[in-house]
Amino acid sequence: MIKDSSLDEVKKLFQHISISSFIKYFEVFEKHYESRDNSFIFENFDKHKEYESWTDKSYKSRATKGKKIFRDKLDIVALEYVTKFANKNRLTSETIEKANRLLKNRKNSIVEIEPIVLKQIKEIENNNELLKAEKTALVKIRLGQSNYRKELIEYWEKSCVTKIEMQEILIASHIKPFSECNETEKYDLYNGLLLTPNYDKLFDKFLISFDQNGEILISTLLTKTDLEKLGISRKDKLNSEKLSPNHYIYLKYHNDKFNERERNKNVLQQRI
């Protein structure tokens, strides 16, 4: 049961930060709510300058109020307010979807983690060759990856290319590789695709990519025979009903890597 006083406090904070800003930068505020330094939060605001025409005062106000929601342990209340009480006509569908997803994840318990993940965590904890800090970091990554896959399954519902619904074989594929992501990007819903193993492997190696219309890009290294054996079609494309403008920045990153590989291959062939 949410206390009226907590709801009132959240409503006051939203007057300074806005619901859309809180949800959009939720992970950023959560990660840095204990820090006095707002530089990392400002860096994330700067990435969206074309959309956020804020003054310096607005930057400071949003950062301060966003951190306060977490510092005062009002994040669950804030999500409850957005999903149950806020005027939905004033919010985008992306904001509403993310708020619902965040709230659901907050309510998930350790019992809901996949058995294979629990097994992997146990193996990490029993590994005497790892330092305590290393174990903590690895467990955090495995839990994050498990929750991330659940989020992608909820969002895409099936393979975002082949439409296959067998969840057991579907892979949560980062568009921008996990190793190259900052903390915000690692588990950003829009940095993920749900792919079958053949597409995942080729995508991971930048042998295929998808443009901003979701249409497949195929490396010239793959022959017609390769594509037939792999079940890859030049007509393949991402599910347009689920493809969002929020995917574009990540798809462009992947496209650039794909094109770089193609250029390097062509240069090598010319030298030969």
UniProtKB/TrEMBL annotation:
Q: Which domain of life is it from?
A: Bacteria
Q: Which UniProt keywords apply?
A: Endonuclease, Hydrolase, Nuclease
GO terms assigned for molecular function: endonuclease activity
InterPro entries recorded: HNH_nuc
Q: In this protein, which residues make up the domain named HNH nuclease?
A: 160-211
What protein is this chain from?
A: HNH endonuclease
Q: Which organism is this entry from?
A: Polaribacter cellanae
